[in-house]
Write a structure and sequence with these properties.
With 236 residues, the chain is an alpha/beta fold. The protein contains 7 helices and 12 strands.
């Protein structure tokens, strides 16, 4: 089987989607006989090939200099790669123009297409902007976002979500093809010992009466992690 992921949520520096697709590539290469194709934006157009894996970078303009995210606007190049590779399954990893292209190409090539709802963008981005418009206009913008999500994701053969809670939100919006997927934990990278919490408390002078939380992820505003930051036992 040949699987294809395409997304513009891809930065050479970091990111959860990058981690997701590269963990998938690693698993396919080490534990299966399948093939994998990844289509993402890049600083230049090139293809990096290894055993049963090909990563296609398509030259795309920067949209964020600090994080190095890019907008993939050359959809014809995406179409040509899909026509040449002819994967058995396409997975779309973002909700923008790449997603619509994946659906259109899948229909034309008779390839099933699924979407992974990696980013709850109406809540992370649109609601933050809509609050400056007032209650009426803000709710109208959020309603448009909900309808956009419903119109896009109901066209996929399935919509994958990383949690049942998020799946329940999408179902309430009318997305009826939700499939929760447990992403799991890479225990080679993350394997805390039983006494690690005690050592961390002692190092940071956090008393036992305080709750200790560990945040693993990008320090991005949309993650809303400000309430989880602790400094010497004091919440900030």
């Amino acid at each position: 089987m040949k699987l294809c992921d395409l997304t513009q949520f891809y930065s050479p520096l970091s990111g959860g989607v990058k981690r997701y697709v590269h963990e998938k590539i690693s698993y396919i290469q080490n534990a299966t006989e399948d093939e994998h194709v990844l289509i993402v934006p890049g600083a230049k157009t090139e293809c990096l090939a290894s055993e049963r894996s090909r990563i296609y970078f398509i030259h795309s303009p920067l949209v964020a200099r600090s994080s190095r995210y890019r907008a993939l606007i050359n959809l014809r190049a995406v179409e040509q790669i899909l026509e040449r590779e002819r994967p058995d399954l396409i997975e779309s990893g973002d909700p923008y123009q790449m997603a619509w292209k994946a659906i259109a190409s899948g229909d034309a090539l008779r390839i099933p297409v699924v979407g992974f709802y990696h980013s709850h963008f109406p809540e992370a981005y649109i609601r933050s902007a809509a609050k400056f418009l007032g209650d009426t206009a803000g709710e109208a913008v959020m309603d448009f976002a909900r309808r956009y999500v419903r119109n896009l994701y109901t066209q996929f053969a399935a919509t994958l979500v990383p949690s049942e809670r998020l799946g329940a939100v999408l179902r309430s919006w009318g997305v009826d093809n939700v499939r929760p997927v447990n992403l799991g934990v890479n225990t080679t990278t993350f394997s805390p010992a039983p006494d690690d919490a005690a050592t961390t408390r002692a190092t940071l002078q956090i008393p036992e009466s305080r709750r200790l939380l560990l945040y693993v992820g990008r320090l991005a505003k949309e993650k809303k992690r400000s309430g989880l930051i602790w400094r010497r036992g004091t919440q900030t």
